[in-house]
Design a protein that fits this description.
The protein has 407 residues and is an alpha/beta fold. It has eleven helices and 18 strands. The chain has an eight-stranded mixed β-sheet, sandwiched between helices. Strands 14-15-13-16-18-17 form a six-stranded antiparallel β-sheet. It has a two-stranded antiparallel sheet with strand order 4-5. Strand 14 and strand 15 form a beta hairpin.
Length: 407
Amino acid sequence: MGIIVQKYGGTSVATPARLRRVAGRIAQTLEDPECVGVAVVVSAMGHSTDRLIDLAHRITPAPDSREMDMLLSTGEMVTAPLLAMALQARGVPAISLTGLQAGIRTTGRHRHARISEIRPERLVDTIYSGRVVIVTGFQGATAELDISTLGRGGSDTTAVALAVALGGDHCEIYTDVAGVFTADPRVVPDARPLAGISYDEMLEMASVGAVVMHPRAVEIGAAYSLPIWVRSTFGSGPGTIINGEANVEGRQPVRGIAHRTDVAKVTLVGVPDRPGVASAVFGPLADHGVNIDIVVQNVSHDGFTDLSFTIAEADLGMARLVLEQVATDVGAAGYQATADIGKVTAVGTGLLNIPGMFATACRALADAGINIQMMSTSEIRITFVVDRGRVIDAVRALHRIFALEKL
């Protein structure tokens, strides 16, 4: 078993009582004779990060990214020493470390940094000295030793990356649900937990709205073939294993329904239909950190077309600033933007190779009276853009038509 890396999310450490519960679980892990030691990654307690973001925006509507990293990193810096104290109170030697102290180095893009390397020597020495190491998730340090953060949900990424660096044979992610479900159980009461899911399926689920895992954490697990267990902090169930599971013939091809409501749609109107226009539109958006998702271009009429695409709602303000100039540069008539939409995605394996899957999904939405604004397909997903007010109805309709409650 070797070194075990565990991550505990914000709800798992939200109160002193829950911190003591987590300390008990860690102590129980140490009782396994095959366990060499434990490294623990923690998130900020409860909704601490949201409160810090709100506080910053009360000071200024556009806080500096470097200072935001300094501010947001403090949430985990509260949790880690408190958990170390809870372990020490149980007679378990423990020490808390920041991302910097744990040897996590990142790129210099504040608020959205990526891990560039991990220097695990101090972690290894501390673990083999008999202490549990509690590491602040979601953060590291740049080459200049400035604190940087990995983006929302980045504690998952910290944990999986540490498991790789420490030579662990798996990583354990503890949260407030019993694993990865076929849909958000708060939306679909009869959603079922999955025993296992492949890296590709989980990556797609995470990318399109399943918040139980961060996409970059899944990417790292897949790159190093590191199994990831998702389990409940508050129960003893087996949870869900994310690994290289291959599709099995006869298995339900659709594995889950994910959704997002933090989506916006932009349409450039009257765009000249000529080579190089798409690059002239999407290049400046990329330069300003705006990621593009679904893209639809209408049929050209008289040399002009409309170009629609989706982005994160949080990027809409920046996109508006960029598109004012872009529309002029490419000779478009203008643009329209709305945030009153959402995305619903059916995720599985081999969906394009199964006749009728797309038609079945469209029929489910039609029967529910839901209009489809945009759609996109791939080998492992079918995505629909619908009115935001109908997102939940769409999730339930797709979950029902694919009988995911029977998995």
